Structures are given as structure tokens and as C-alpha cells.
Amino acid sequence: MSDPYEAVVPYPDGNATASRYAKTARKYGYGGIVLRSRIDRGDGDLPLSVVDSEKSTIYGVDVVPGVEVVPDSQTQVGGLASSVRERTVVLTVRGGNSGVNRAALEDPRVDVLSRPFGDDGTGGDDDGDVNHVLVKAARDNDVAIEFDLSPVLRLSGGRRVRALGRLRKLRELIDHYGAPFVVSARPDSHLRMRSVRELSAVGSQIGFEPETIREGLERWGNIADRNRKRLSESFIGEGIERGRYETE
Is Nuclease one of the keywords (predicted)? Predict the structure, then answer.
């Protein structure tokens, strides 16, 4: 069994540092955190450097460099993905727009489509949705779709009911087509982190078994492990690595 990971919004976009998140994550039993550092610029001049493919731990918690790109339109997805793919471990595209959702799920360079129903989980800017065609694209391109539980945790009334309805529909589609998925409470502060047990309780409201919630939390770590291998100097291709006597 792998360790559960949570994908967090670090300072300055969020209200806590990576160190503070890591300390809280250890308390809640997480093995790692993925940093969602936001990038919403389409000019290619991105403030990133090549990341170290080795693990970096704080308080014994694996801290994974990640980027969440926020495209203005579907035409920006490919350019942003190309600009940052080799310079971050986990690449997430923020959705909520039908065109962006499609572009992200059809691009195998993308690891995760986050917030597919928009910031509040009730539909997005243009009634952004995820249908059977997009879920099959996610499966075929190995792009995980995020079950964003934050609206269920933070909304109330009719908006919470609508968010629950969207998540239930997404669960049925992913179950049917076998697409990959991740789970997150999308904390933008260490005070908004929740334990695996708490997220399992929330997941039960949309028909998830506790094991499924844990699987979605573990996949963040699995994605990180896979991409660290790809970023390492020894990697040549799937199943092929450079030996100690090989050169460029």
C-alpha cells in the first residue's frame, strides 16, 4: 500500500508555506504533499528552473514540486504544457471550461485535470462539464481527473447540492470507463487540510468506498514517482534506463 498524498496551494497563492503544510500533513498521516504553484501566463516566460528528480522531505514528508497552469482558453493548454513539462514533477491543468477540459484530457503531457467543474464545483464559467467522451480521453491519455472535495467541505445549501450532483455523475463515468482519478480537498491553508478518514466520510456522500478515496490520494504519489524517474538523467524511455557505462 502506498502513502496518501494531498495536493496543496502554497504561498503566495495560498496562505501557508510548504513547511507548514508538511508539518500538518505528518500530523494527519500523509506521506507527502504536492505543491500546486499557479502559472497563468501564456508567453512562455515562466519563473521555473529545472527540478531535482530526487525526493525532498520536510518533517519526514515528501514535498513534490508541482505546477497548476491556469489557461485563459483551450488554445493555451498545449503551449503551457510544453513550457513546463520538463521543469516540474506534477503538471496540473485547472479546468472549469469545456474547451480547457477537453484540451487537457487529450494531452498526455498533462498529469491531472483539476477543478473540472470550476472553482466552486457547480459548473464552471461556461457550464463546464465532463462527459463520457472526455472520460474516455482521460483513460486513453492517462490523465487523472480530480475529485475536488473542497466545495462539499466549504459550500452550503443549493450550491453544495449541485456540487455533490456533479461529483456523483463524475464518479459514475469514471467507474464505468476505468479512467484514472485523484482526490483532494484542495487546501489553500494548513487549517483546511483534512485527514484521510475525514475525506473518506465526505466521499461516502457521493458513493465512494473508503478504499477508493485512499486510492485517489495515493495516485498523487504514484504520479510523482513515475515522473521523477522520467526526469532523472538515467531515463531514456519507458522500461529503458542509461547504465553506468553509457553516455549521451
Answer: yes
Cβ-contact 69, 110 below 8 angstroms: no
Domain boundaries, the chain: 5-233
223, amino acid identity: I
Distances in whole angstroms, Cα of residue 235 to Cα of each of 140, 207, 247: 23, 40, 12
Q: What ranges make up the beta strands (E) of the chain?
A: 5-8, 32-35, 37-39, 57-58, 61-64, 66-69, 90-94, 112-114, 144-148, 181-184, 235-237, 240-241
How far from 218 is each of 33, 82, 202, CA to CA, in Å?
11, 26, 17
pLDDT, tens digit (0-9, with 9 covering 90-100), for 4-63: 999 999 999 999 999 999 999 999 999 999 999 998 754 444 455 556 656 789 999 999
- Asked if 139 and 179 count as a contact pair (C-beta separation under 8 A), the reply is yes
Sign, CA dihedral 92-3-202-165, equals positive
- Give the class (CATH, top level) of 5-233: alpha beta
Q: CB within 8 A of 25, min separation 6: which ones?
A: 6, 8, 32, 33, 59, 61, 193
Length in residues, the chain: 248
Query: How far apart are alpha carbons 145 and 149 in whole angstroms?
Result: 12
pLDDT tens digits for range 197-242: 999 999 998 889 999 999 999 999 999 999 999 987 554 444 444 4
